[in-house]
Design a protein that fits this description.
The longest helix has 21 residues. It is globular and about 80 Å long. The chain is of the alpha/beta class. The protein has a 7-stranded mixed sheet with strand order 1-7-6-5-4-2-3, sandwiched between helices. Strands 8-9-12-11-10 form a 5-stranded mixed sheet, with helices on one face. Helix 12 packs across helix 14. Bound molecules: pyridoxal-5'-phosphate. Pyridoxal-5'-phosphate binds next to helix 3.
């Protein structure tokens, strides 16, 4: 297929597919070999070299979606995060990370970096001053995530790259929540895009994978470490991920539409105190999100009023499932206080704006009336439980 840029649906469906020259099948053949001939060939293929036929093909699709020269696929989102950060950080280097980050990334930094002699600073805010003052002479990487979990805070990507470029620093983004369908950070000068492909790229809650997209020069540098750390993805799963990504734009667009409609509806209910969704004009990041996102995503958080117990509400749902993960075609919810942020003290949760009544809602592709109905019946059940006691 020519390299001329295609529409997003066409990229999802076709870019990177392996032609079945033997049988003319409609989908990419799957090559499970872990052993390839070494003599008389240019490429030394091996799964841990990230260059089997299926790995290479899927990387082309991911690169096309993020509008970069290259990409790599990993065995998990954290394999992509850790390999990419460590590829650009040496002993004595410093990294600046935005203050609200995926928990696994936070743990990687605070639990592992000291032993490599890498120092770090988490910003105390998301504005220009917060980033600028965190930078030292030793800073090599600036790492952000937008929208971020669980309040869907929006970071100004152009501001971040302006600050970084002034100081000759590489910029990285965890683009998982937006997905390449809603946001292409390269257009704002971000150097390296990282994904948990477990989320929107997989989209069916049956794949654990990661991806990174960047210029070929950066990809080569990440590859040098990746082949040593060994976080490659099996070709069986690579093939499943290729199949999943054919419908990524369809799925994410449906999730965007459902999430916007549900956020607006939730905002109108007396039982909901606040709704956090970048698509709502009331969200502090709304104007920024309009500038840098083409859709507002499928993640919505909302806070129940104090008289509705979040744990009882969660247990009362019938259609919407409780889940730690997100981004599947099925709608799921979690209570950050009970799960992802359970280890923080109540004071620390309050500082971060995470109330006990907060629910994170990963909006799926179901009919919106059925999702509304489920939320309404759960609220009614909680009300009844309170009345009985
Ligand atoms: C899930 C997630 C990760 C980690 O991905 P895994 O596939 O679980 O390793 C990283 N960043 C974000 C924003 C995530 O949601």
């Amino acid at each position: 297929m020519s390299l001329k840029k295609k529409g997003i649906q066409t990229i999802c469906t076709h870019v990177g597919e392996i032609e079945d020259e033997q049988f003319k099948g409609a989908v990419s053949p799957i090559y499970l070999s872990s052993s390839y001939a070494f003599m008389d060939v240019d490429v030394k293929r091996y799964p841990r070299y990230f260059n089997t036929p299926n790995q290479e093909a899927l990387c082309k699709k991911i690169a096309a979606l993020e509008e970069t020269e290259g990409a790599l696929i990993f065995g998990s989102g954290m394999a992509a995060v850790s390999t990419t950060l460590l590829a650009f950080l040496n002993q004595g280097d410093h990294v600046v990370l935005q203050k609200t980050l995926y928990g696994g990334t936070y743990n990687l930094v605070v639990e592992e970096f000291a032993k490599y002699g890498i120092t770090y600073t988490f910003t105390d805010g998301l504005d220009e001053e917060a980033f600028a003052k965190a930078i030292t002479e030793k800073t090599k990487v600036l790492y952000i995530e937008t929208p971020s979990n669980p309040l869907m805070t929006i970071t100004d990507m152009q501001m971040v790259t302006d600050v970084a470029k002034k100081n000759g620093i590489i910029t990285m983004i965890d683009n998982t929540f937006a997905s390449p369908i809603n946001q292409n950070p390269i257009n704002f000068g971000i150097d390296i895009m990282i994904h948990s492909a477990t989320k929107y790229m997989g989209g069916h809650s049956d794949i654990c994978a990661g991806a990174v997209a960047a210029s070929q020069e950066h990809i080569d540098k990440i590859w040098n470490l990746a082949k040593n750390l060994g976080g490659s993805l099996s070709d069986m799963t690579v093939w499943m991920l290729e199949r999943s990504m054919k419908t990524m734009a369809l799925r994410v667009n449906a999730q965007n539409a459902n999430a916007l409609a549900l956020a607006t509806w939730l905002d109108s209910l007396d039982e909901i105190r606040t709704v956090y969704y970048p698509g709502l004009p009331s969200h502090p990041g709304h104007e920024l999100a309009k500038r840098q996102m083409s859709g507002f995503g499928g993640m919505v958080s909302f806070e129940l009023i104090a008289t509705i117990d979040a744990a009882v509400f969660m247990k009362s749902l019938e259609l919407i499932k409780p889940s730690m993960s997100l981004a599947g075609v099925e709608s799921t919810m979690l209570s950050p206080t009970q799960t992802s942020h359970a280890l923080l003290s109540p004071e620390e949760r309050e500082i971060q704006g995470i109330a006990d009544g907060l629910i994170r809602f990963s909006v799926g592709i179901e009919d919106i009336e059925d999702l509304q109905q489920d939320i309404i019946q759960a609220i009614k059940k909680v009300r009844k439980a309170v009345a009985v006691h």
